[in-house]
Structures are given as C-alpha cells and as structure tokens.
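Hi V.,

Quick status before I head out on leave. The structure for the redesign project is tokenized and pasted below; the design run finished overnight.
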C-alpha cells in the first residue's frame, strides 16, 4: 500500500524507498505532463485508490505541480495498509486507525488532490473524454471531463461457487471492513463458546476456537499465523503442492516446517469442495479428498 513515508515525503521512483510498480510510471507520466499546450492545465481522473490509485496520484503530483487531479474510491478508505490486515485480525495491530495511512484531507492539504470516497465510476465515454460518477450513498450521478484517465479499480476477492459458500462464519480478507467483520466474529464466538462464561465449578477451561484458512498464499499464511497468535487451532488447506507458490519448493518447505512447529495443521494437495453447518453454530469444511475439518 501507500506507506507513511510516501505520503509525508512524496513517492520515490527508484532506490530502496521505491513504491511497488512506480518504476514503470515515470516515463509514461513524463509524456503526459508534457502534452498540454503551454499554460494549459491537464486534468487527470484516477478511478480507485489504495496501493495503485493513491500511489499514482502522489507520483503524478510530483511530476506536475499544476495538474488537476481527481481520485475516486468506491470504498470508505482511499489509502490503508492492506498488508497489515491479517495483523489487525490477529490483534498485533490493535487499533484500526493504525491501518489508515492517509485520508481525503491528507491528499487535499499535502498534495492538492481532490478525493471522493464512496464514489464509483459507472460509465466511461472515451469519445467525449467524460466519466459518470455515482455517489454510493445517495445514488446521484454526475459527469466529469478528463484529459487523462487512470483505471486502478482493483478486484474483488474470489468466492468460488461452492455449496455452502454463503453460510455465516465464512469470510474474505481484502479491505478494512473485512478485517473488522472477522474481529467482531472472533469477539462474539459461536453460541457454544459465547456461553462458556456461564459454567461454574470445574468447567473453567475455554476450548480453543477452531479456524480453517483456505489458500496458502501470502494473505492466507499471514492470516493463519495471526489466528495462531490468538490461540486458535488453525488448519490451512491448500490445493497445490506447497504454500507460497512464488517460492522454490525447497524454500516453501522451510516456511511450512516453521508454521507446523508453531501448531498449524497443514493440508496440501487437497482443494475445498464445500461447506456444511456444524453443531452449535460451527462449520464443516469439506475437501475433495473426503476429509472434513471443523471450524468455529
């Protein structure tokens, strides 16, 4: 995401402080900044914020201090530390506010960039160089003209059409509201766990909460790590032969061993086939091999 140093001091395009993807942008933006006639002010509309759009907006401002820049973001946050989301779930990052790198006021005051959150682009007309923007809350649609248009809308998390995919207790982790929803579920617990405080006598040990993480990519591994940090019994199910696919198998084995030594139950070469309700509000995660893994 757009880190704090980038926001406070402006983004760098080279060296150890370079932002992801920015090295490819200077030449393109250099051409853009030189295109308008002398005295003309170029207007750029950027659709989407966070890592791509917000970094693009800050870099463009450094290249052209006179450009008119409008950035629209459908969600409530224009720039947040998305790499920190699993650690917020794990309570390593305790406050949600610590994830928020910059808001609309930051971009307006430090970069003279107009930001509209809760605003989505619903139509692009290249011929007339206009876009239609809809306010998510009110539904009002306005039209804005542009000289240059940057599309950085991101993507939605994959929710495969598996049986039971919409059951309560199944979450995705991509945005701050996603992390907030998971934390609220963890605090509430299942009906069984929520009632443990009513037991007395020798019934004093609260059983561990069980969680299943589907997918062994970077976010999946970090989420599993943080749920273990919260004393969950965690099972990670990965369809491929290793976690962290970009790594060489030998390197992945080291990471897998480290996770298992810290209590992770790792399942490789097995994909999820569906989900079923369990007892007391729990879930059953069914895999293609026929195995069943319980989750709270």
């Amino acid at each position: 995401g757009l880190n704090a140093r980038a926001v406070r001091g402006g983004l760098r395009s080279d060296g150890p402080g370079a932002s992801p993807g920015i090295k490819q942008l200077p030449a393109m933006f250099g051409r853009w900044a030189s295109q308008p006639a002398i005295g003309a002010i170029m207007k750029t509309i950027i659709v989407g914020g966070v890592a791509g759009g917000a970094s693009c907006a800050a870099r463009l401002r450094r290249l052209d201090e006179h450009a008119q820049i409008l950035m629209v973001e459908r969600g409530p946050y224009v720039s947040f530390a998305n790499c920190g989301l699993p650690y917020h779930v794990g309570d390593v990052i305790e406050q949600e506010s610590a994830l928020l790198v910059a808001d609309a006021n930051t971009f307006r005051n430090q970069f003279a960039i107009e930001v509209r959150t809760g605003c989505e682009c619903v139509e692009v007309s290249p011929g007339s160089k206009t876009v239609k923007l809809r306010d998510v809350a009110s539904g009002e649609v306005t039209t804005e003209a542009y000289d240059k248009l940057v599309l950085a809308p991101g993507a939605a998390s994959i929710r495969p059409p598996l049986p039971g995919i919409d059951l309560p207790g199944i979450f995705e982790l991509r945005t701050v509201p996603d992390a907030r929803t998971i934390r609220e579920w963890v605090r509430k617990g299942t009906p069984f766990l929520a009632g443990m405080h009513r037991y007395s006598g020798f019934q004093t040990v609260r059983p561990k909460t069980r969680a299943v993480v589907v997918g062994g990519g970077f976010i999946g591994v970090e989420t599993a790590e943080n749920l273990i940090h919260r004393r969950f019994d965690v099972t990670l199910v990965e369809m491929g032969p290793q976690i962290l696919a970009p790594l060489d198998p030998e390197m992945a084995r080291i990471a897998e061993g480290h996770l298992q030594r810290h209590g992770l139950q790792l399942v490789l070469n097995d994909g999820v086939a569906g989900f079923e309700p369990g007892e007391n509000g729990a879930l059953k995660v069914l895999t293609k091999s026929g195995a069943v893994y319980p989750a709270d």
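Above is the designed sequence. The longest strand covers residues 119-125.

G. will cover questions while I'm gone.

Best,
W.
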